Amino acid sequence: MTISARIPNILTTARLAVSPLLVLVFLILPYSQASVVAAAIFAAATITDFLDGFLARRFDLISNLGKVLDPIADKALVVIALLAVAANSGLDSWFLVPATAIVFREIFIAGLREQMSGSSVELGTTGIGKTKAATQMAAIFLLLLSPALSNYSVEVELIGLFLLWAAAILSVVSAVIYFRKTLPYL
Q1: What's the CA gap between 103 and 85, in Å, rounded?
Q2: Which among 48, 68, 77, 171 counts the fewest CB atoms within 10 Å?
Q3: 28-32, 85-89, 166-170, range with greatest mean pLDDT
Q4: 176 and 104 Cβ atoms separated by less than 8 Å
């Protein structure tokens, strides 16, 4: 396997490796600086999520390792980022409720995929799942960045919360769709 064939897996592994940095920067740097650095790390990791999938599909570089690592890296990035925001939000219920729905969905779908592995049921990504992912990534980015934007912090945070609620609703809807698809096989 050439290096170019490994690029999607390298990007996925990098996303997985940098995810813990989202919390670490808040422990090391002053809050407003940590907010900018965490948002930048999150944005870069989100870009690798798009790139690894695009490259793997476009150039037929899909691998078993990528099939396993990609969803793990996605979930690690989202859950760790949500933990970082939660730790810095004062555990605001307007944040915790949608964040809990998103985390629950990620764990639930991972369990369904594990249960259905080896069966004829395919639980690939759907349009609603991709919309949910894009919405939650935008929401998390804004929520990570908002503390550093002194003049627009409240507005950016409200937009981020609105998007997080939208992502939570899409999370619940997509979980129901996946569950209904797998129910006859459970």
Answers
A1: 13
A2: 68
A3: 166-170
A4: no
Q: Is 63 helix (H, G, I), strand (E, B) or coil?
A: coil
Contact 77, 45 (CB under 8 A): yes
- CA dist., res. 156 & res. 54, Å (int): 29
**Helix H segments across the chain?**
3-18, 21-28, 31-58, 64-88, 93-116, 127-145, 153-182
Amino acid present at 159: I
Which amino acid would we find at residue 154? V
Q: Is the dihedral of CA 9, 113, 139, 166 positive or negative?
A: positive
Residues 40-72 have pLDDT tens digits of: 999 999 999 999 989 988 888 888 898 889 989
Q: What does the alpha-carbon distance between residue 72 and residue 13 come to, in Å, rounded to a whole number?
A: 10
The pTM is what?
A: 0.92
